[in-house]
Amino acid sequence: MGSKLVMWNVLGTNAFLFLLLFSWFSSVTASVTYDDKAIIINGQRRILISGSIHYPRSTPEMWPDLIQKAKDGGLDVIQTYVFWNGHEPSQGNYYFQDRYDLVGFIKLVKAAGLYVHLRIGPYVCAEWNFGGFPVWLKYIPGMSFRTDNEPFKAEMKKFTNKIVDMMKAERLFESQGGPIIMSQIENEYGPVEYEVGDTAKAYTKWAAEMAVGLGTGVPWVMCKQDDAPDPIINTCNDFYCDWFSPNKAYKPKMWTENWTGWFTEFGGAVPYRPAEDVAFSVARFIQKGGSFVNYYMYHGGTNFGRTAGGPFIATSYDYDAPIDEYGLLRQPKWGHLRDLHKAIKLCELALVSVNPTVTSLGNNQEAHVFKSKSGACAAFLANYDSNSFATVSFGNMNYNLPPWSISILPDCKNTVFNTARVGAQSAQMKMTQVTDLGFSWQSYNEEITSDSDSSFTVAGLQEQINTTRDSTDYLWYMTDVKIDPNEGFLNNGQYPVLTVMSAGHALHVFINSELSGTAYGSLENPKLTFSESVKLRAGINKISLLSLSVGLPNVGIHFETWNAGVLGPVTLNGLNEGTRDLSWQNWSYKIGLKGEDLRLHTVTGSSSVEWVQGSQVAQKQPLTWYKAIFNAPAGNEPLALDMNSMGKGQIWINGQSIGRHWPAYKASGTCGGCSYAGYYKETKCQSNCGEASQRWYHVPRSWLNPTGNLLVVFEEWGGDPTGISLGSRTVASVCADIFEGQPTHTSFQMQASGKVQGPLRPKAHLWCAPGQKISSIKFASFGTPQGVCGSFQEGSCHAHKSYNAFEKHSEAAACIPLHQKNGNTQSRCPKETILTIFTSEKHVSSNVGNPST
Ligand code: GAL
Q1: Residue 9: how many other CB atoms lie within 10 Å
Q2: Does residue 125 line the site of ligand 1, with CB under 6 A?
Q3: Cα 724 to Cα 720: distance, rounded to the nearest angstrom
Q4: Alpha-carbon span 258 to 52, nearest angstrom
C-alpha cells in the first residue's frame, strides 16, 4: 500500500495506469489467478462447480442447512449477488442485519469449506425490485443509470467500494485467507452496450478500471460482455454454453449462469427444466474445455416483502432449483447433479491438463478425450440426437448412448455416469394441511378517503413511482364527476363508459366507494386499459382509482425513465356531450393505504383499531384487512400458507412480510408432457396452467413464536379467508430406477490410487427425510414401466416377479438409520434413513410410498 502512494507522487498522471498494472500484477501473484484452462487457486487449476444462493431470499436460520446441502451436492463455490437496495435503503444509511447479513452469510460458506463468487454488480437484474438499485438513486439530479454518467458512477463506485472494504476488513478475499475467489462487476452489460453505443463503451471501460483498481487480489468477471477489458474475464450466461469462448486465448471458459429452471411470474405457468438436460448441458460444457459452471439458481428461495422485481415476478423464486424454495432437496435433480459432479471430479486432473481431442463417432455422436502426459485419461461420449439411441464404438468397446446424452468415462474405459440415466432417487412432495390449526379471523375495512396527511390535490395525472418513491404498492387517484340530472343515461340505463389508460401495473376502480372493476397487465406488457360502463348518478360522483405497482422492472436501459400509474387519458364516454376528458381536472392523491399508515401488519398497529369478528367478518369484500392469531405447529417441516381462496394482496406474520399474494392471477401457457431431450428454453416445460401461478406462500419457521403469532392479510379483490390454511411440506413418495448395463457412479468404487474400479452390481438407494420411514412399496416393475414418481404404471413389458427382489431382501424394506450427528439438534439428518435395493435384473423401477412420521 505504502509503495503505491509513493509511486503516485512520482508518476503523476500515469499513476492510474500504474495502479492498474500493480493490481493486475498483485492479482497474478496472489493466491487466485487464472490461465486458459481454469481458475488457479493456490497454484492449482480447478474445475469448479458453483451454485447461486441469494442470502436475502432465505432466512439466516436456513443458511447453514442450504450451504451444507450445496456442499453435499458436490458444490465448491456459492455464488451470490449483493443487493444494493437492501443494503442502502436510504442514501448513506446502510443495513447489514438479518437476511442482509452479507458478512455472516459469507462466513458460513467459509465455515463449510466452500468458496464464494461475489457478484457485487451493483446492478444485479435477478428478478429483484429495480434490478437491485435503490429507488432514491433516481432522484439524484442528473442521474442516468448504467451509462457514462457522473452522478451514477459516483454512487456505483461508492457502494462497490463500501462492499469491497467490508470484505477486506473481514479478511474475506482468498488473497487474505478468506473464501471469496472471484467478484463480478456489472451484469450482462454487453447487450446494453450493443444498443446504446459509445457512451456505454466508455462506461464499460470505467467500470472495469474502477473494479480492478480496488485491488481485491482475486479475479473479476463480467458476464455476457464480449469486450470485457483485461484482466477481467468475460463469462457466459445461458441454458447451454458449450458454444462460448472467452475474448482472449489466455482466459478460462466460464459459465456464470446455467439456468436450472426459470422464474415464475404472476399470470404465467410454472417453468421446470428436466435434470437430464441440466446435466447434459454441463457435461457438454466441460467436454469442450469449460472449467467453471454455476447453477443459477441452486436454491432460488422467496422474494419476501416487496423485493420481487418484474413487474409481476411472483413471490416464490423457487426456479425449479436443485434445492427447492423451502430448503428441501428437489429430487432427482439434486441427486443427479451430485452424481454428475462426482463423475466430473474423477476426471479433474485430465480436464485441467490438456485440450480435448475430438473425434466423430457417427452422424451426431462425438468423443472428447482428455489425455494428459502424466497418463491421466478422461473421455466424454456424446449423442446429440434428440430422438435416437446410438451405439458407438470407442477404444475396443461398444457404448450405448441414450438420446441427448453424454457418458463420462474417467479412465477412458468405464462409463460412470450418463446424463440421461438418472440413478438418484426421485421424490414426490406434498403439502399436508396442519389440522389442529383453524384460523379465527377478524376483519377491518380499508377506507377509501382522501382525508389524510399523505394526500394532496393537483390538476392532472401524476406518475406513480415519482409520487410514492416506491414506499408502497398503492397510490389513490381520486376525482369528482358532476352528472347533470338531464343526462340521457339516467333514463335509458345505458351507463357511460369510463376509460382509464395506465402505465401499469394493476388498477381497481371504485365508483362512489363501490368496486366497479379491475384491470392489470403482465410481465410482457405491464400497461393496462380499463374500459367499462360505470354506475353514475345525478349530482357529484366520486371516482377513486387505486393504482398498484407489482414490483419495479429489473432489466433494460434508462431505468430513470420508467413509468407506472395512471398517466391517462381518463375519459367518460356516453354522456349527452359525448366524451368528457377527466385527465386535466383536479385529482386528489393519497400515497399508500390507511392500514399501511396505521401499521396494521404489526402487533401494536393492529391493536390500534377495532376489528370485527365472528359472523360479521367480511367475506368477498375488496380492500379488507384480516388478522388471526395462531400457535406454531409442532415439528420441523417447512410451512406454507394456502392462499387459493384469496384474490390479490399482501401477507405478514409477526410484522414480517411474507410477500405479495395473487392466486387469482391464473397461469396461462402450454402445459403437458415435456421430453428432456432437445434444446430447452423457458417455455418448453411448464406446469400449473389454468391454476394459480402461485398458490403456496412460504412461512419461515424462524418467524414464528411457539404461541400467539399474528397473521395479517390485506386483500384487495375480495376473497374467502376461511379457505386459508397452513400446510407442511413433506415427501410423499420416493422412487428409483436401475438400468441394465447402465451403471451409475454409485456402482463404482474409487480406489485410494485414484483408479476407478467397477462396475459393481447396479443398485439404487432410497432415502427418507428426517423423521420419516418407508411404510409401503407401492410399485415395482422389471420391464418398461411408464409414468413418473407417484404415478407409475406397468408398461408393455413387465415381469411378474418384479416384487421378488424386495421380498427376498426383506431387510431392505425397513429403513436403516444412516447417520447421527453428534446429538446436535440443528443437524441436517438426525434420523435419516436409507433403503438399499440390490438387483441384477433388467430395469427395476420402484416407488416406495407413504412415508409416515
Ligand atoms: C439473467 C440475469 C439474472 C437473472 C436471469 C433470469 O440474464 O443475469 O440476474 O435475471 O437472467 O433469471
Answers
A1: 8
A2: yes
A3: 8
A4: 10
State the virtual CA torsion across 290, 291, 294, 295 in degrees, nearest 10.
60
Residue 692's SS3 state is strand
Q: Active-site residues: which are they?
A: 188, 257
Q: Rounded to the nearest whole angstrom, what is the distance from the C-alpha of residue 258 to the centroid of ligand 1?
A: 10
Which protein residue has the closest C-alpha to ligand 1 atom 11?
Answer: 126
Give the nearest ligand 1 atom to 81 CA: 9
Report the separation in Å between the CA atom of 436 and the middle of ligand 1, taken as the mean of its atom positions.
41
Written in H, E and C, the secondary structure of 479-500 is EEEEECCCCCHHHHCCCCEEEE
- In Å, how far are 518, 548, 560, 587, 828 from 466, measured between CA atoms? 23, 13, 10, 16, 47
**0.70 exceeded by pTM:** yes
Q: Which atom of ligand 1 is nearest to the CA of 126?
A: 9
The phi, psi pair for 349, rounded to 5°, reads -60, -45
Helix (H) or strand (E) holding 340: helix 333-346
The H or E element containing residue 127 is none
Nearest CA to ligand 1 atom 5: 126
Task: For ligand 1, say whether the CB of 126 is within 6 Å of any of its atoms.
Answer: yes
- Complete edge-to-edge strand list for the sheet that includes strand 578-581: 528-533, 497-502, 570-575, 578-581
Instruction: Output the CA 51–ligand 1 centroid distance in Å.
Output: 14
Q: Is 43 exposed, middle or buried (0-12, 13-18, 19+ CB in 10 A)?
A: exposed
The C-alpha cell of 159 is what?
457502494
CA 60 – CA 208 distance, rounded (Å): 32
Distance in Å from the first CA to the final CA of the chain = 60
Atom of ligand 1 nearest to the CA of 319: 12
Q: Whose CA is nearest to atom 6 of ligand 1?
A: 126
Q: Ligand 1 centroid to 185 CA: how many Å? A: 15
State which of 188, 523, 554 you would mutate to test the pocket of ligand 1, scoring each by most atoms of that ligand within 8 A of its C-beta: 188
Measuring CA to CA, which residue among 79, 71, 82, 72 is closest to residue 50? 79
List of residues 6+ apart from 676 with CB closer than 8 A? 274, 275, 276, 277, 280, 404, 420
Grid cell 413389458 is found at: 797
Cα(505) to ligand 1 centroid in Å equals: 21
| Residue 677 CA to ligand 1 centre (angstroms) | 24
Cα maximum dimension of the chain = 98
Helix (H) or strand (E) holding 168: helix 150-169
Instruction: Give the model confidence (pLDDT) of 798-815 as tens digits.
Output: 888 777 766 665 444 433
Query: What amino acid occupies position 367?
Result: A
Does 127 sit in the ligand 1 pocket, CB within 6 Å?
yes
Under-70 pLDDT residues of the chain: 1-30, 436, 449-454, 740-765, 805-853
CB 83 within 8 Å of CB 36: no
DSSP letter for each residue of 536-573: --SEEEEEEEEEE--S-B-SSS-GGG---S--S-EEEE
Kindly list the distances between the CA atom of residue 781 and the CA atoms of 193, 309, 453, 673, 799, in Å, as whole numbers in the listed order. 56, 46, 70, 22, 7
How many other C-beta atoms can be found within 10 angstroms of the C-beta atom of residue 447?
12
Distance in angstroms (rounded) separating the CA atoms of residues 30 and 174: 9
266 Cβ below 6 A of ligand 1: no
Q: How far apart are CA 181 and CA 33, in angstroms?
A: 9
Q: What pLDDT, in 10s, does the model give residues 754-770?
A: 555 655 556 666 777 77
With CA atoms as reference, report the closest residue to 441 among 603, 617, 653. 617
Cell matching residue 600? 396494521
**Rounded Cα gap, residues 407 and 361, in angstroms:** 13
pLDDT at residue 801, rounded to an integer: 79
For residue range 361-403, list pLDDT tens digits in order.
999 999 999 999 999 999 999 999 999 999 999 999 999 999 9
Question: What is the number of the ligand 1 atom nearest to the C-alpha of 127?
Answer: 10
Beta bridge partners of 504: none
